[in-house]
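Narrative summary of target 7.
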Amino acid sequence: MKRLLGVPILAVLLAMFAVSRAEACYCGAARFRCCASCCDSGCYTTCKQECHTVMKTVQEVVWEPQTFTCHKMVNETVCEPRTIDCVSHVHETCYRDVQYTVCRPVYEQKTREICYTVCRPVYEQKTREICYTVCRPVYETKSRDICYTVCHPVYETKCRDICYTVCKPVYEQRTKEICYTVCKPVYEQKCREICYTVCHPVYEQRTKEICYTVCKPVYETRTKEICYTVCRPVYEQHSRDIHYTVCKPVYEQCSRDICYTTCHPVYEQRTKDIVYNVSRPVYEQHSRDIHYSVMVPVTETHERAVNYTVTKPVHFTKTVTVQGGHWDTQEYEVAGPVVSRMVRDPGQWVWDECRCRCCYQPGCCHCCQEQCPPVKCCKRVWVPECCEKQIDCVRYECECCTKMVPYTCTHMVSECRTKTCCYTTCHMECEQRVKTCCYTVCHMERQQHTKTVNYTVCHMVQEPRVKTCCYTTCHMVPEQRVKTCTYTCCHMEREQRVKTCCYTVCHMEREQRVKTCNYTVCHMVPEQRVKTCCYTVCHMQSEQRVKHCTYTVCHMEREQRVKTCCYTVCHMQSEQRVKQCCYTVCHMVPEQRVKQCCYTVCHMVPETCTKQVPYCVCREVHTQKTINVSRCVPKCVEYQVTRCVPHCVCKEVPVTVCCPVVNDPGCGCAADPGCGCSN
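Modeled conformation, tokenized:
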């Protein structure tokens, strides 16, 4: 690796020794070619450097604003008054008298007699005996064992899975295009001096200690005993004697003599004459004239005037101003951008005493701003034009006309008519009649009898009895129990800590400065752009989840028990009874009556009436109206345009040029006056 590094170093040394003479050009102001023969390396140390100031002509581009006057065509709207004829239709309502016939009803009250027969009820009271049976209740006490079921609760803990739905948001990226207007800046360069104050910060490092408290959790496991009471059932068997009385029936046979009376019927035939009235109907034929009115339709033909409107087209020509134009291409100059570039000042030769030779020291670099040449741009400008055209128009005018229309009118005319009506009248005539009626008379003859009846008498004898009943008694005995519960207690212990915090204190020192500010005047030109906007749409998506739920189920367990129940049995015993029943017999007796009947007779009387019928008449009204008609008049308008024009300005700039001077004249070389080495 060291051998490879030595190769380029050796090449540089050989190149330095191979150079026999040195030529230097100080920006074309001095050269050493003329004194190369006498000024060798031995006498070069006797040379001294001398600096001169030379004026150099430099061209600078200066942008000067110039104002130009331009012309453009602008459409100006001019309103001219114009009088037009207008026709409006006015509808008027008129009335005419129309006669019509109305049939008015006239009502007349009349009365007639009507004979009718009414059956009048005649009531008669009678009595009879009714034998009926009554059931008398007989009560008996019994006992029986009843088995019943008692349900006591049994609790059981179960687990089940519950499915539920959770709405989870799902985000979706979408894209849409948004049209927006961007104001594009057009810049104009200007220059001004601004006095400003600069606050440069002075930073100072400081340190402070901060005390803070930290709460550290300390966990401790503890144990405690919990006393609780449990009720334990204790079952105990018992027995007891139940004393009860049983009624035992004792039957005894008895007999007795019963005297009773028997009624046997004795029938006897008899005869009697019955006189009765019979109503015999007698019919009689009658006739009468009935006057009635009939409405007869009568049809008449009339004519009436009907107004109707006819729309007629009216052709006319009018002048219309049409706005048009064309596109023109205009050229305009846009000031070039201001470019910053680094410029180095001319350097100088400086004598280096350490190396005993002159070294070239380059000038300082500074940033300068230059404006680029203007750019010519083209744009399309719409030049509006107004022209007048003749167009054909049609307007529709309404014309009111009248025509006679026949119509048929039907009205009802009352006509009186007479008809003969035959009717039959029926009246009842009473007639006496006699009939012989045979009937049987029955009378009851009583007869005494005696009979012996055997019957059984039952009387209840009470007998005491004893039975032993076993039963179980359950009472709850409280029992104390203890269980040990382990739990964890957490208490926070405070701990003081100290931390060192380094912070920087900055205070601002003000310094007055002046700077030349090139600023740009910007006026905005609107430009339509389209950008693609990404947005997120969120819709909810259902997700099924399952959670584990523990619950307690209580089911009832059945337990069979027996209890003794006393009940009463009732059976019905039949008993014969007799009661007297009164009833009413109704038979109808015919009776002749007469009533007055009122009825109404209606006949129509014709009557002539007059009514007013409205009809519409259309009338034209001519009016004049003044309207404003607008038209576009082209007008030339002046406007000012300011733009920057470049100019080349020549100015002289001082330039410092340094060249070496020979101090020892004894070296034997005469300086060429053209080389610039002489004083």
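Residues 44-337+372-663 form one domain.
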